[in-house]
Amino acid sequence: MKHFEEKTTNTQSIFNGKVIDVQVDDVLLPNGKNSKREIVKHPGAVAIIPITQDNKIIFVKQYRKPLEKTLIEIPAGKLEEGESPDITVLRELEEETGYTTNQLQYITSFYTSPGFANEIIYLYETNSLEKVLEPKPLDEDEFVELMELSIGEAEKLIATQEIHDAKTMYAILYLKNKGMR
Amino acid sequence: MKHFEEKTTNTQSIFNGKVIDVQVDDVLLPNGKNSKREIVKHPGAVAIIPITQDNKIIFVKQYRKPLEKTLIEIPAGKLEEGESPDITVLRELEEETGYTTNQLQYITSFYTSPGFANEIIYLYETNSLEKVLEPKPLDEDEFVELMELSIGEAEKLIATQEIHDAKTMYAILYLKNKGMR
């Protein structure tokens, strides 16, 4: 697929934010023409499916400013610079749910929006949760509410679109496909 | 969940592009403090699982500049302003594969990156494909190569991460979960 590559001839930095950077690249297309690509740089993220002893999934309810609405999602968070996803996911699990685990299982990873962003999500699961006595606090600007749901209850929230994001819907399909009821 | 809402006190436009707009909102948090939210506005997109008569899925191989690599994905594309996803998906199917259908089935929709972007993808499937004699051409800056794969072959490409994006991996899990072999 070398012949489809787009060669960068110039990069214009548009924005350097706390979460994202934005740039516009001038590219040389495979047909020799020039075009521009608008690119969002993201540090990458983790998400985890925490499963309780009584076979419920722990979700977080959270206001999502870009959508101006509240979504129910599996716990997730951004990678710090140079941080291994295995570390990030334990921190986010603890901050958002108050649990930790010594049996972390990596499932897969995926790009969320390859057309305009480089965000990748590393997805994990655990069914061995331990309460942390004094869990690390959430980020200052983060507010979440916990919910424990069976897979059937989660499917109902997909129908009402309260669960409406890709990683969480993937997670639920993954569990169903594994035979979880 | 009204109490988790973040009130916008100011919006600063950072960038107005062809594909995305970027803005930074000042928000009033539920605890009375102020913060900033970096937001990517995207027009939304469609994706479709085209299934051939011999039970193969049609994929497109495409260079993704934000990742600097080639991914194999189900056909997809952006909504034009004011356009219904049902229309967009038929156009993208025709442009990218040369097929059309009069049996379009809507599956679901999901937000891809609710933490920083408002992109939503409407996902469809069809197993009733008809060749278009003179299909609409691809966009000027778009170059794709078609591949027809069985679900087992697609799973192998997930293992090698040539299939590595959320919508396509969701689509394959969806088909597996429906019993497609």
From TrEMBL, chains A, B:
Domain of life from the UniProt record: Bacteria
GO CC aspect terms: cytosol
Any single GO BP term: ribose phosphate metabolic process
InterPro entries to which the protein is assigned, alphabetical: NUDIX_hydrolase-like_dom_sf, NUDIX_hydrolase_CS, NUDIX_hydrolase_dom
Any one Gene Ontology molecular-function term assigned to this protein's record: hydrolase activity
Keyword annotations: Hydrolase
Domain Nudix hydrolase: residue ranges: 40-171
Cofactor(s) listed in the protein's UniProt record: Mg(2+)
Name of the protein in its database record: ADP-ribose pyrophosphatase
Lineage: Bacteria, Bacillati, Bacillota, Bacilli, Bacillales
